[in-house]
Input
Amino acid sequence: MRRYPRRFRALAAGLAALAGYVDAVGFLTLGGFFVSFMSGNSTRLAVGLAFHTHAAGIAGGLVATFVAGGVAGTRVAGAAGVRRAPVVLGCVAALLAIAALVAQMGSGMAAAFVLAAAMGAENAVFERDGEVAIGLTYMTGTLVKLGQRLAALVRGEDRRGWAGHFVMWVSLTAGAALGASMHQWIGGAAIWLAAALAATLAVVAGAIGPIGPALDPVSRSGRGAAAG
Output
């Protein structure tokens, strides 16, 4: 996280909040399945298979749709080049708007599958060398890194390394709390707010400029040129 300039870290936190919001709405719509947290769905798939329940089909379908969204997002990002962040987020906003329309038509299940595709695509915003550089829709790895950075803090080696990971977790959790509240208030129409947020983040991503490779600590501090 710290290897990216602050404006990109702020964008990542906003995207984590969006993912939390969407996941909470999807979770409540489906009664216990996820649209961005695929580890949970993988467990539900396995349990469903073991007990021969329909949950396996729902969980497996969500995982497949999420992966398909990731494939599509990566393809779009590759075609967009340096404009990949706003273009990918524009696609995410469009998918969320479609999900909102489908939900209004009375098909919460179909809407949730579109939400899963949107969340898979969102992860293409921060890619480096074909890999996800910052996980936006899941926090397990982020929490592991948070624990590692806190251990470094205790050793007196790194006073600020934990902060970025903590902010990402808080952002996703706060977004989920808002999503749950909005779903309780207005039901499936809450997805419209997610679409509006994604569109806003697409505009922000376009305004702050291309997301390049993460800077190493030396070049970030400007000492690299002096050393060379």
